[in-house]
Design a protein that fits this description.
- The chain is an alpha/beta fold.
- It folds into 2 domains: 5-248, Peroxisomal Thiolase, Chain A, domain 1; 260-409, Peroxisomal Thiolase, Chain A, domain 1.
- Helix content is 33%, strand content 19%.
- It contains 13 helices and 15 strands.
- Strands 1, 2, 5, 6, 7, 8, 9, 10, 11, 14 and 15 form an 11-stranded mixed beta sheet that branches.
- Helix 11 (308-322) links the parallel strand 10 (299-301) and strand 11.
- Helix 3 crosses helix 6 and helix 7 (165-178) packs across helix 13.
């Protein structure tokens, strides 16, 4: 018998503030978290804007000594996990800690620390390099630090799947619960890869927006004037558990997590296949494996990075996956407001799906003022929409052609 998996708690740290409900209300309001970079000197960089998390103080969310032995991406994961655990009303103790797992993914882990310690070595000598560089930046440290923080001893996994990582986490978490390997999984994505060298490299690649006006207008998915993504940071973590376990402890599910699918383009180092066939296959398989028909999907939280080829390829893939129903779907691009959180991007999309199901509201795609004729679907331009959502799909597509899609639907208990 298949074990149904439900969402019972959500936590978030994002460019729109601290907290899942803060992120959701700001998304619905169409507010932007894109600003001039404050956390390091970007005055001589070609790109000076990003989606930084404002006002994040680690000791507000964890022990100060513990925080010093965490990279920023792991600190975000612990903060978001704490909120999700509290929202779910989950008590972790000796009776259940072996049956609770963690699937937290990232794109880069603590990469900025490598840049920082390399600079220390060159400027101050090798004695200036900290002894914990390797365990601090290792991508698995978000999952591991969450486990250490809350005493979680069940299956713990990290996949580094570029910008598909945050979506893939939900697929793997559902599979783990369905197999019976755990009763509860903390899952999602976290990223804090902003650094001068990373921005320089992505700018040289031509991936980043060169918008010269108000930073809030820089991220423009599906708009004819889009010219690249805005680099951002943050984390979203959810508590997933079997329906049986949730109901037995008196928790009220927010939505059902129905799993999903992932595929590969096998096409290019950074560009998606413009034909969108593998991305479409991932969407079709995700819907089929969730036990739904494609006509039952009401909403798609699009990957939509605001690159010329990426937004067109996703539009093409959605048309291939959904056929005539594509014209009936509501979509939105939360990256228009928070930028691209890389390994956490898909987790933000999952939050949009879960809360859209809960509240019957679709966040807008802001900055969509000059629609691209080649991107011809309903992207919920500029203004939030009231819409009952029975089922929703989160898309995540990453460098190297990795495609991941996760399906969420209304709980019918």
């Amino acid at each position: 018998m298949t074990r149904r998996v439900v969402v019972t708690g959500v936590g978030a740290v994002s460019p729109l503030g601290i907290g899942a409900e803060t992120l959701w209300s700001e998304l619905l309001a169409g507010h932007s978290g894109i600003r001039t970079i404050q956390n390091f000197d970007a005055s001589d960089l070609e790109v000076k804007i990003a989606g930084e998390v404002p006002g994040f103080v680690p000791k507000d969310h964890m022990d100060a000594k513990q925080a010093k032995r965490m990279a920023r991406f792991a600190q975000f994961a612990v903060a978001a996990s704490r909120e999700a655990i509290e929202a779910a009303g989950l008590v972790i103790d000796d009776d259940n800690r072996d049956r609770i797992g963690i699937v937290l993914n990232t794109g880069g882990g603590g990469v900025p620390l490598i840049e920082e310690e390399t600079r220390n070595s060159l400027q101050k000598g090798r004695r200036a390099v900290g002894p914990f560089l390797i365990p601090l930046f290792s991508p698995n440290m978000a999952s591991s630090q969450v486990g250490i923080s809350f005493g979680i001893k069940g299956p713990t996994m990290t996949s580094v799947a570029a910008c598909a990582a945050g979506t893939q986490a939900f697929v793997d978490a559902v599979h783990t619960l369905e197999r019976g390997d755990a009763d509860v999984i903390l899952t999602g994505g976290t990223e804090a890869a902003l650094s001068p060298v990373a921005i320089i490299s992505l700018a040289h690649m031509g991936a980043l927006s060169r918008w010269e006006g108000d930073p809030a207008g820089a991220s423009r998915p599906f708009d004819a004037e889009r010219n690249g993504f805005v680099f951002s940071e943050g984390a979203v973590v959810m508590v997933l558990e079997t329906e049986e376990h949730a109901l037995a402890r008196g928790a009220e599910p927010i939505a059902i997590a129905s799993g999903g699918a992932y595929t590969a383009d096998a096409f290019h180092l950074t560009a998606p296949d413009p034909g969108g066939e593998s991305a479409a296959r991932a969407m079709r398989q995700a819907v089929q494996r969730s036990g739904l028909e494609r006509e039952q999907i009401d909403y798609i939280a699009a990957h939509a990075t605001a690159t010329q080829i990426g937004d067109f390829a996703e539009t093409t893939a959605i048309r291939k996956a959904f056929g005539a129903h594509a014209d009936s779907l509501a979509m939105s691009a939360n990256k228009s407001m928070v930028g691209h959180l890389l390994g956490a991007a898909g987790a933000v999309s999952a939050l949009s799906c879960v809360f859209a199901i809960r509240d019957g509201r679709i966040p807008p795609t802001i900055n969509l003022t000059h629609p691209d004729p080649k991107c011809d679907l309903d992207y919920t331009p500029n203004v939030m929409r009231e819409l009952p959502v029975r089922a929703a799909l989160a898309n995540g597509f990453g460098f190297g052609g990795q495609n991941a899609c996760a399906v969420f639907r209304a709980w019918d208990g």
